[in-house]
């Protein structure tokens, strides 16, 4: 098995640079905000972070490809970095401190490294294949994390993002039934739901509509924490449609409950 320790170290350096940009621009009076064709928001901070990360990867891993949310893909080959400069831009724009930079490394079609940096929460989460999943402020101040042991939906804690996508997906009734039958539900949303699964705080996280850059870094962190990460149709990996992350024991039941009914 390949050792991805050095790639994890690089991911932390990339996150250091990203955090410096996002912390300075968060709640800035002159923050520039635009609406993209898909009706989502983008800020000057999103673009600055992605440009900086791309430049650093070009210098340190010139043979690696890069896929990001805001700019065209670059490079080709078996190794590809997948970047979401600010996951939770809507929160960022509105001054809600729940957003993060997501950095993932895909090798030959599988996610091998993932890092999530949420500076306003004072935390990072990261993992490398075979190296476990961790959380903390830095590599030197970290603790290993693991998913929960909850096996019954009636005892489970479910986190999600919003109801809108579920209604239009044809899976709305199944999702509502899950919320009704679960022991506890909260809409933490975005990256945080999945990192709480990895920590064992939440048992299930799911969303019906996500892009690769939203999911890539999360996938390996959940798996290395002992959980399972698939599409809502049950396909392994961060390739959609949507995402379902669980502690593993609840996964089959959730897939059955979320099957489309129309």
Number of helical runs?
8
Helix content: 25-40%
Widest sheet, order of strands: 3-4-5-6-7-8-9
What is the count of distinct domains? 2
* Beta-strand share of residues: 25-35%
**In the CATH classification, which architecture of the largest domain applies?**
2-Layer Sandwich
What kind of oligomer do you see? single chain
* CATH hierarchy class name of the largest domain: Alpha Beta
CATH topology descriptor of the largest domain: Fructose-1,6-Bisphosphatase, Chain A, domain 1
Tell me about the largest β-sheet. Answer: 7 strands, mixed
Query: Kindly state the mean pLDDT as a whole number?
Result: 96
Compute the CA-based radius of gyration: 18 Å
Summing up helix and strand content along with how strands pair, one would put the structural category as alpha+beta
Distance between the termini: 43 Å
Overall strand count:
14
**The CATH homologous superfamily of the largest domain:** Fructose-1,6-Bisphosphatase, subunit A, domain 1
Q: What overall geometry do the principal axes of the alpha carbons give?
A: globular
Q: What sequence of helices (H) and strands (E) makes up the elements? A: HEEHEEHEEEEEEHHEHEHEEH
């Amino acid at each position: 098995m390949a050792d991805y320790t050095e790639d994890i170290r690089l991911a932390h350096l990339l996150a250091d640079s990203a955090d410096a940009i996002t912390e300075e621009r968060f709640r800035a009076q002159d923050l520039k905000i635009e609406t993209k064709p898909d009706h989502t928001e983008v800020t000057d901070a999103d673009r600055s972070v992605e440009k900086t990360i791309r430049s650093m990867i070009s210098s340190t891993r010139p043979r690696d490809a890069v896929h990001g949310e805001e700019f065209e893909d670059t490079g080709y080959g078996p190794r590809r970095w997948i970047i979401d400069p600010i996951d939770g831009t809507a929160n960022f724009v509105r001054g809600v401190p729940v957003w993060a930079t997501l950095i993932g490394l895909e090798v030959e079609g599988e996610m091998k490294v993932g890092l999530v940096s949420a500076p306003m929460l004072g935390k990072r989460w990261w993992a490398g294949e075979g190296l476990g999943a961790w959380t903390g402020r830095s590599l030197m101040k970290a603790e290993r994390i693991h998913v929960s042991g909850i096996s019954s939906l009636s005892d489970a804690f479910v986190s999600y993002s919003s109801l809108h996508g579920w209604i239009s997906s044809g899976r709305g009734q199944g999702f509502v039934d899950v919320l009704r039958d679960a022991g506890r539900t909260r809409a933490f949303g975005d990256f945080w739901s999945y990192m709480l699964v990895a920590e064992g705080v939440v048992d299930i996280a799911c969303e019906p509509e996500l892009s690769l850059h939203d999911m890539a870094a999360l996938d390996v962190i959940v798996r290395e924490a002992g959980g399972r990460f698939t599409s809502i149709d049950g396909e392994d990996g961060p390739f959609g449609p949507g995402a379902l992350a669980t502690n593993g024991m609840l996964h089959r039941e959730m897939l059955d409950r979320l099957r489309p009914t129309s």
